[in-house]
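Dear support,

Our group has been running a series of protein-ligand predictions, and this particular one with pantoate is the one our PI (initials K.S.) wants archived with full inputs and outputs. We had some confusion internally about which version of the output was final, so please treat the block below as the authoritative record. The input we submitted was:
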Amino acid sequence: MKIVTTVEELRGQLRGQLRTAFVPTMGNLHAGHLSLMRLAAKHGDPVVASIFVNRLQFGPKDDFERYPRTFQSDCDKLEAEGVYVLFAPDEREMYPEPQEYRVDPPKALGDVLEGEFRPGFFIGVTTVVLKLFSCVQPRAAIFGKKDYQQLMIIRRMCRQFSLPTEIIAAETVRAADGLALSSRNGYLSEAERAEAPTLYAELQSVASAVCQDGGRDLAGLERAASDRLRGRGWRPDYVAIRKRSDLTVPGADDRARGDPLVVLTAAWLGATRLIDNLEI
Ligand code: PAF
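Confirmed final output from the archive:
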């Protein structure tokens, strides 16, 4: 695996490649990331990964400074997966001057759910992803469904900017007890780690309630799930049942048509914020 840190070296390595499959990451790689690398190999060749902890998508109170950085073990894992090039720029390479041009996702999609609780998050994500795409010029790029809203926003960005990159969605990888794999799981204490699978269990119980009673009172189901989490010591930011197509609140017509739904959540357990979702 070639490790390159500059855009110039990256372009040199990828010159003439028309079928590159790309997996952008912030490092601290776990089995979920590695499943993205494997999916990438099915959608293109060579596979290129990036590791860049993107300050632009962290708010002032977020965990940018303490975000886990495990570069050497990440490299070993990527090498074992047969990744061809790892692009690992530093901040000066990615942002040699203040990033004044930014992507601004539509408010209806970018300022709700994660965007409501992490203002500016999706501006930071889409701006860095557009820059990374411009450096790598991938034919396909892989994003996990765990970041459901991110995946949707990036897919629409590609469509609206006519980017030649196909966005491929990868299923969420879970621990045996149901907890979605995440770099932030490493922040959990032993007791919190034991409690953490409750988040997915709540999503499952909301999903089965929607299926069983036809989901007449979706807001009531969301409130009940939040209350149950609160009762176990969580601080939920949201539990939200939304249309899969655009993450808006389903109306009676949508329900009558049987529009596919997804339930999404973000909740704090101690000092750790976890997110998860489940398609219904
Ligand atoms: O999902 C992530 O790890 C990040 O948001 C991404 C897509 C690598 C952009 O920094």
